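Q: Got a minute? One more chain.
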Amino acid sequence: MVDEVMSGRDPAIRISAMPADTNAYGDIFGGWLMSMMDSAAGLTAARYSHGRAVTVAMDGMQFHQPVKVGDEVSVYTNMVKTGTSSMTIDVEAWRRERHRDTAVKVTQATFTFVAIDENGRPRPIKG
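A: Always. Here it is, folded:
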């Protein structure tokens, strides 16, 4: 796993994992992490399409490491494919223990978004 500081990328989202986000064993809920990834991909999709975009699919999520309370979670996005109204975005989540300098990748997934108009119908991307 590459240290995020060395990656040269800025995260779409960076947040600290808090006690309210944990399961009974003290690990962060996978659903919380998925939500952060969806939010980061949504920001990327909205910026690229210059408007509203919605999640239509998420594929390939695998958890490699747990996230603990106090860890800094950084979520990175990469637009990999665009269509007339759709966008495919690779998303990675990394964690850094609060008092350490290095980060490790905890999960990744591919999200698909569709740009929509004010009526909720697909619209062409204005990219």
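A: The chain has one domain: 4-115.
Q: Perfect, thanks.
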